[in-house]
Amino acid sequence: MYKIMVVEDDNSLCGQICERLHKWEFEAIRIEDFKNIVKEYTSIKPNLIIMDVTLPYFDGFYWCNKIREISKVPIIFASSKNSNMDVIMAINMGGDDYITKPFAMDILIAKINALLRRTYSYGSDSCDVIECNGAVFNLTENTFSYADNKIELTRNEFRILQVLIKNKGKVVSRQRIMRALWEDDNFINDNTLTVNINRLRSRISDMGLSDFIVTKKGRGYIIS
């Protein structure tokens, strides 16, 4: 579970951000003492920081610059200021991305997922070929084989199988699968996931593997 530190002095907005992060199965930690953000960072050791620009005591640019002296942790600035100079200042101070208030939570989640993936190579595997229940999942060729049948996988089908097979025997939530389907800022919604899961199931079933991906109602999916 990725740990995200939220540095936002608007309690209402901070609560909304943390609530959405929890729904996406991130560990959200809100900062309430703004006197020493660096100390908070070293204590929490987050994987990513959401940083407001206008803060008590010192602004977000100051704290970003201080954090950059000790860490390359990804930082997304959130601000009501939308001038080019503010964006340039954010990047020059070491920020990785910038989002202007008010913003849609889906856009923030997209930026978080893209940045985490670029930073931590989410979903990467060191093995090129994985055997699973008699089938062969080839990560280099983007193919799935069973008996004498082989199919070429779409990008979404590949990522769905990747996260499910990597967690074989464990229930994987829909939110976690959707997180694996993000590509930069492209939004994958709940309906899109359902369509992709159903299509993948149908293709695998046609190969002779029935019930390869099992639904756990209210929890997600599993490959046993």
From TrEMBL:
PANTHER family assigned: REGULATOR OF RPOS, STAGE 0 SPORULATION PROTEIN A HOMOLOG
Source organism per UniProt: Clostridium neuense
Protein name: Stage 0 sporulation protein A homolog
4-aspartylphosphate carried by residues: D52
Keywords (A to Z) from UniProt: DNA-binding, Phosphoprotein, Transcription, Transcription regulation
Statement: the UniProt record of this protein carries the keyword DNA repair: no
Superkingdom of origin organism: Bacteria
Gene3D superfamilies registered for this protein in UniProt: 3.40.50.2300, 6.10.250.690, Winged helix-like DNA-binding domain superfamily/Winged helix DNA-binding domain (1.10.10.10)
DNA-binding region (UniProt annotation): 127-224
Domain Response regulatory positions: 3-116
CDD domains: trans_reg_C
One matching Pfam family: Response_reg
InterPro entries membership: CheY-like_superfamily, OmpR/PhoB-type_DNA-bd, Sig_transdc_resp-reg_C-effctor, Sig_transdc_resp-reg_receiver, WalR-like, WH-like_DNA-bd_sf
Occurrences of domain OmpR/PhoB-type (ranges): 127-224
Main function: May play the central regulatory role in sporulation. It may be an element of the effector pathway responsible for the activation of sporulation genes in response to nutritional stress. Spo0A may act in concert with spo0H (a sigma factor) to control the expression of some genes that are critical to the sporulation process.
Segments crossing the lipid bilayer: none
